[in-house]
Design brief:
alpha+beta; three-stranded antiparallel sheet; 1 helix
Length: 78
């Protein structure tokens, strides 16, 4: 099943430790990176977010296969 493209915003946090930048996403446990430059950390974190969200969606699709479900968009403002 193809899903429409959605754009979301997350909070990225970067910490410089010695010669490395450590990055993570506050709202998405598991999205962590370590790179030599801030720009590399930013790009790697974008890729990590995309991969985690795609994987989570695929796992949910497998678990819902054959079930009678209702799907709808939900928006939350924080």
């Amino acid at each position: 099943m193809k899903h429409p493209t959605m754009e979301n915003s997350f909070t990225a946090v970067y910490e410089k430790l010695d010669d490395w930048y450590i990055g993570y996403v506050q709202e998405l446990p598991g999205a962590n990176v370590q790179e030599r430059t801030l720009e590399e950390a930013r790009e790697s974190l974008r890729e990590a977010i995309e991969l985690i969200l795609i994987s989570n969606r695929e796992l949910a699709e497998q678990q819902l296969s054959g079930k009678d479900v209702v799907r709808e968009q939900i928006t939350v403002k924080l």
